[in-house]
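Reviewers asked in the last cycle whether our approach scales beyond single polypeptides. To address this, we selected a multi-component target totalling 648 residues and predicted its structure end to end. The input consisted of the following lines:
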Amino acid sequence: MRKKVIFRGVALPYLLLAPQLVITAIFFFWPAGMAIWQSTLRQDAFGLRTEFVALENFLDLFSDPLYLNAAWNTVLFSSAVAALALGAALFLAVQADKHIRGAGLYKTMLIWPYAVAPALAAVLWLFIFHPSIGLVGRGFAAIGIDWDYRLNGGQAMTMVIVAAAWKQVSYNFIFFLAGLQSIPTSVLEAAAIDGARPMRRFWTVVFPLLSPTAFFLLVVNLVYAFFDTFGIIHALTRGGPGNATETLIYKVYVDGVQNLNLGSSAAQSVILMVIVIALTAVQFRFIERRVHY
Amino acid sequence: MASLDIQGVQKSFGATRVLHGIDLAIADGEMIVVVGASGCGKSTLLRIVAGLETPSAGKVLIEGRDVTPLEPADRDIAMVFQTYALYPHMSVFDNMAYGLKIRGLPKAEIAARVQEAADLLSIGQLLQRKPRQLSGGQRQRVAMGRAIVRHPKLFLFDEPLSNLDAKLRVQMRAEIRRLQKRLKVTSLFVTHDQVEAMTLGDRLVVMHEGRAAQVGTPMEVWSRPADTYVASFIGSPAMNLLPATLAEGGAAARLAGGALWRFADGPRAGGEGMAVTLGIRPEHMLPDGAEGLALSVELAEPMGSETVLHGILPDGTALTARVPGVLAAERVTLAPDLAALHVFDAASGRRIDPA
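The resulting structure, written as structure tokens, was:
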């Protein structure tokens, strides 16, 4: 039962809402509006003249091979990060849910990476994978793998995926663990008595009961991979080598801040904005439906 | 359908011993009720039989085969849980079919078996529903159905009725008993409710602090309780336990208040003045105009056909009596039906039979 408070008049409710509305307006609606407006403008190279070009910035983007390359990179990067982060977190959560010695310590340690700033995480991975000073980088060289992410685009992509996924595992782990712990023990025992072996129990009982959690996390992970991985890419590869690790969000930065092509950059942010709105809408729609209890 | 033998089963959790060696032989088709207060180890015993817990010592045999090292899946048993433990994401049909699918039965046979069990439990119209759309009683039936379709060797019930309201509980109790008799499946039923225990079981196991205090038919346990714990646990309201000493060479006992009760069934062994506990059920304290114990009534509970009186004797001992009809008085004189008197050793609590 929700408690409803009825205010007399309108002044007090608006006053109470004002701080949140002001913050939303200044930090969300205003920049978003500016981005939409700017995405329809084009400046000359010296910033002297600005003209209205309607949707031309968008049309240019869709025929720009570099933009399409960034879009493809983003699809590859996001799905790999989500798959890796979700898979690893689920595996770790299932292990942590067992009654093992030192489970408390294990859980605490697994949550730590979430507290590491993206740039620091990137530097950490840099030190691990660097071909001349990194432990793993040198290890690869020792076993004959020609490892240099500064030259090989595929290797660079692999590295940013691993680093970005690593950051997100903790978050997923907490949700999966909570989800596992909310499954009643007696249901699993009933399945055991019904003859299901551990693997079968996991796929026919545990996993379906976790699916609302998994779906929620999938959306969160995609949003993370789309929008929050700028720091990692910037610190590790700067989008390179070539444009091998340039994702949509990174290209917004490159075109807007480095190339000062504000119109195109704004158009790209508008596209990203549409994507995140769509993802959130999907999440809200499905999360309601797929709850089992 | 099979016999079940529990041999010297012990269980410790760390330093705490919850089962001190339980021995029990259950015949094919028998229904045994394990009853006891919470924490007596009855659920642990059931879980050991199910294979959900490993005994610290002892063996469990189903149909003469030692199943102690086997997983629950390999024991061919079915269990009904207190919380029903239905799979929340599966329909009623899938809940019941789950165990059969795992065993790889053909689709047609699964459907036939589920339908048969559903008809037996009259839940045929619910097969497409999800557990969350069912009432408590319906969930209980589905849980039973899930056990029945498997045609297991053994049914295990872990307090399956305690989450139901009183009326439904009585109804399901009768239904479980009917089903069990019809299917003739060996069953182990755990409960803390002594009425369930009395009405359901072919035999009872009264557990107390990790030991089987008494094993016997409901009437044996009721009429000849093995010790003061069983005496006070079985029967409602509980049996009165009165301190007394042996008198007249063991042929009678003298209550703390001075009254002398002569044993109707013969003298007890033991010296004059040995401390004993006399047990007398409330319904065996009869109103008596002349000689008897004067009870000052503190509370009278009218039940309609009878009245339960709670009061104290002149020597300060509490006593409960169940008298026919309606009786509202501050003082009543009550005399025991001496043929229904139980005598226990005050020190050990064990029953003392006539020598």
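Chain B touches chain A through 25 residues (CB under 8 Å). We regard this as preliminary and will revisit it once experimental data from Aim 1 are available.
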